[in-house]
Amino acid sequence: RRRVVARMSIRTVEPFAGAAWVIDGVKLWWRNPRGFAFYGLWLGVLGILPSLMAGAGTQIAVLVQFIALIASALVVLALFYVAREVDEGRGAGPGQLFRALQGGNAGRLLIGVLGPQLLALLVVGMLLGWLVGFEEAERFATTMQQLQASGAEAVTPEALAGLPLGGIVLFVGVALATVIAIGLLTFTLLPDMIFGDVGLLAALGRSVRTCLRNLPAMLLFAVTMCIVGAIAMVVIGVFGMLLVPLLGQTGAGLALNAIFVAVIAPISTNAIYLGWKQLLGPDENADANAA
After folding, report:
1. Rounded mean pLDDT, 224-237
2. Contact 17, 187 (CB under 8 A)
3. Which of 25, 26, 43, 90 satisfies CB 3.0 to 4.6 Å to 85 for a cystine?
4. Which pLDDT belongs to residue 185?
5. CA distances (Å), 86 to each of 21, 40, 45, 264, 273, in order?
6. How many CB atoms lie within 10 A of CB 281?
7. Cβ–Cβ < 8 Å for 278, 187
8. Predicted pLDDT at 221
9. Average pLDDT of the chain?
10. What is the three-class DSSP state of 156?
């Protein structure tokens, strides 16, 4: 019983720990880049698959979107298993892909992956309707597509007049802050369910309490993750210039999106796993403390 209490306790860490999780996540990725790349590329390809199938008809597009959503959730769960395997000195093979389907917990684990995403999507949609309006947002998107097709010289103050630019800027800022907040509040949700064998609602409550108790570390984690993402975007963007003659502008853009996800997703899951391990993971000194 003392072991369980020690394992279930929420720890408080220094603010710099948030940055250390990301840095150590990069180091963990570097220990087995090919193993992480296997899952990362799957996730990247699944992310662009709906765009590739956009012209195949509404029913097929919806089916592909649904399949890609479920498959992406399985890959995200597999990345947490891979992070633990590499962290503990073992290899990262394709066999981890279906680990979430073992043990009868696949349903709640999939809800744990998709739930925060759907919540963020719902909240962002409500913010769009409230701050901009769906009709105004559609008009803005249509105008920007027309300007993009016309070339850079068509972007003039007269062409932008009347567009809800202020509302769009406000919406983007609030939506970004909302998505980050949901991500931080559910920071330990998945590893707690996977490795701590904690139920969905209990894991969600523990994640919220952990985030609020360690808010400086969480914010520094978000900032550091954004910096790593920006660096990766610049490096991959330079590489993408070589792909434009081969794949065209659209094809190169999709390929760069897939590569970016393939790099960032494993680093992010590594950082979250290491953060959970420090905040909520098993206490290796539990026996000594009890004694």
Report:
1. 92
2. no
3. 90
4. 92
5. 15, 15, 23, 17, 11
6. 18
7. no
8. 96
9. 83
10. coil
Nearest CA among 127, 139, 134, 141 for reference residue 170: 127
Residue bearing tokens 């919540």: 119
Pseudo-torsion of CA 18, 23, 25, 28, nearest 10°?
-150
- Whether the predicted pLDDT of 102 surpasses 90: no
Non-local CB neighbours of 51 within 8 Å, separated by 6+ positions: 254
Q: Which residues of 118-154 are buried (b: 16+ CB within 10 A; e: fewer)?
A: eebeebbeebbeebbeeebbeebeeeeeebeeeeeee
pLDDT value of position 140: 80
Q: Cα(70)–Cα(114) distance, rounded to whole angstroms?
A: 8
- Say how many CA atoms lie within 13 Å of 34 toward its Cβ: 2
H-type alpha helices, 53-101: 58-87
Structure tokens at 16: 């710099």
pLDDT band at 291 (very low <50, low <70, confident <90, very high): very low
pLDDT for the residue numbered 47: 87
Closest CA to 236 of 44, 47, 20, 13: 44
